[in-house]
Amino acid sequence: xxxxxxxxxxxxxxxxxxxxxxxxxxxxxxxxxxxxxxxxxxxxxxxxxxxxxxxxxxxxxxxxxxxxxxxxxxxxxxxxxxxxxxxxxxxxxxxxxxxxxxxxxxxxxxxxxxxxxxxxxxxxxxxxxxxxxxxxxxxxxxxxxxxxxxxxxxxxxxxxxxxxxxxxxxxxxxxxxxxxxxxxxxxxxxxxxxxxxxxxxxxxxxxxxxxxxxxxxxxxxxxxxxxxxxxxxxxxxxxxxxxxxxxxxxxxxxxxxxxxxxxxxxxxxxxxxxxxxxxxxxxxxxxxxxxxxxxxxxxxxxxxxxxxxxxxxxxxxxxxxxxxxxxxxxxxxxxxxxxxxxxxxxxxxxxxxxxxxxxxxxxxxxxxxxxxxxxxxxxxxxxxxxxxxxxxxxxxxxxxxxxxxxxxxxxxxxxxxxxxxxxxxxxxxxxxxxxxxxxxxxxxxxxxxxxxxxxxxxxxxxxxxxxxxxxxxxxxxxxxxxxxxxxxxxxxxxxxxxxxxxxxxxxxxxxxxxxxxxxxxxxxxxxxxxxxxxxxxxxxxxxxxxxxxxxxxxxxxxxxxxxxxxxxxxxxxxxxxxxxxxxxxxxxxxxxxxxxxxxxxxxxxxxxxxxxxxxxxxxxxxxxxxxxxxxxxxxxxxxxxxxxxxxxxxxxxxxxxxxxxxxxxxxxxxx
Length: 671
Hints:
The chain has 671 residues and is α+β, with helices and mostly antiparallel strands. It contains 25 helices and 22 strands. Strands 6, 10, 11, 14, 16, 17, 18 and 21 form an 8-stranded mixed sheet that branches. Strands 9-8-15 form a 3-stranded mixed sheet. A two-stranded parallel sheet has the order 2-3. Helix 17 packs antiparallel against helix 18 (514-534) and helix 17 (487-510) runs parallel beside helix 23 (602-612). The longest helix is centred in the last third of the chain and has 24 residues, at 487-510. The chain is globular.
């Protein structure tokens, strides 16, 4: 993630006006009236931290575009305003995405290179035949969203980091547990670029409010008392509980529930290859997602992980509040505790979690899972394909918390009168068995209603009615690129090298072949390098030739070749150089346009790239590739962090906000 502008709100999600508040269309409105109406109404659709359009709003916009008075200028204004705005899955399905695509200015045409088949040495080693042509029979592995998520949506924390609160990390902890990271760079990563140089990514930081971005430490202790910053002795959980009650607006006896994402700040520097591998940055450096339920107790999958305590020494956890628009936090927290108590009792961790099949990708399956779990369906506990790893488990808890108020009327509304009444009684008994207490009841408008879903138990739309959609391997790759190797910040050579280097990661995840991968990747790489060329001062054919030569050498090194190969007596690997040169065929083909439109800014080049990649990316999404027996959907441990900072799509009615970072009391001291 390129460093993020603290003045831009990045965490949480938007709220919206009630659908009934959307204005009616004036009879016989002309173009000017419609543009005024659109301009006046649009802020109501996308208020909040992450601009988002839901299905009701999408239908209003589509109806506006279909009115007789909606001429080309109205449609152009509509397309312009929707740039950088997230569409919910339902809004896309309703047809708004297709409409906006049809309204966008045409992408540059012409041959962008890559028209043969050759043998290359990939960064992972070995000679393999690869397709270097267009999309062909491609698949979804190259769904990079570069053409869908404009640059200004991607979080870019910039400026001086703020470490809020009364605590600071001890020098000994920074030196030992966190491997020498400097105090002012804690929670960040230095990305070591190919060929030298580095830039810093604030990958664990979050919005603190008031234009500040960084981290807020809260000291905790397991089964012990701790000293507060002003010297008082309190139970180890007291400072965290007091802080969360204040931030969540809770009373002294109101329930606490927060998601907790465990992070690895010790992995604070590395090459792109190391970041994608041993440093686990494909999952943002997070390796566990649990929940904190107050009183020093955590819940997890596996059920007894961390002995149901914090255990944050050398392993801090970002603490996140999940909110639902219009619902008091104490009510939602109580509902979360009910769902969590029931689903956590007896939770089964998969034997091979990296190849776990994440099944609860729609509301229908999620609700059915809950019903089957309550009824002790043996398959959920005996069949490894239904076992749930840490983040998968807490994602299910979150979606039940948001969609199932625990009262009989709500159960009847979801499952029908007879089934709902029966299931509610079973849930009460299940909760009593898990906790030894009578189940409290909760009542609120659930997410599925807010999303306009009519029949939740049959809602099979991907991600519809859920807090966030599952991630695919392309999403994970896209997030990694946007965070650690963004074109705007690292340039075309590094972006292309990163794309090539991801082959080994994707092979393990999906079983994709090199031929499949490069058939999809090379057209994208060609356009990335065209965008790079446009940013250079290329005013003559000689300038262009120099750029081609220098870029080929830089790409060669980025792909794993050695600088020494270019020295006298050195030997250039023809396969690696062949791949580098194939990445530049688009530059050669677009030479007249580059000569005419050179010297543009990185922002302008990224804008061009967004449009130019649309046909490649749309075609690449159509057919899955790789091994069908490999997992296709994921809910990685840092999914909540990606939602909180605005990197991953989510329901506009749901907010995930990082409140603080839990650190062990032995690792901090008063400022």
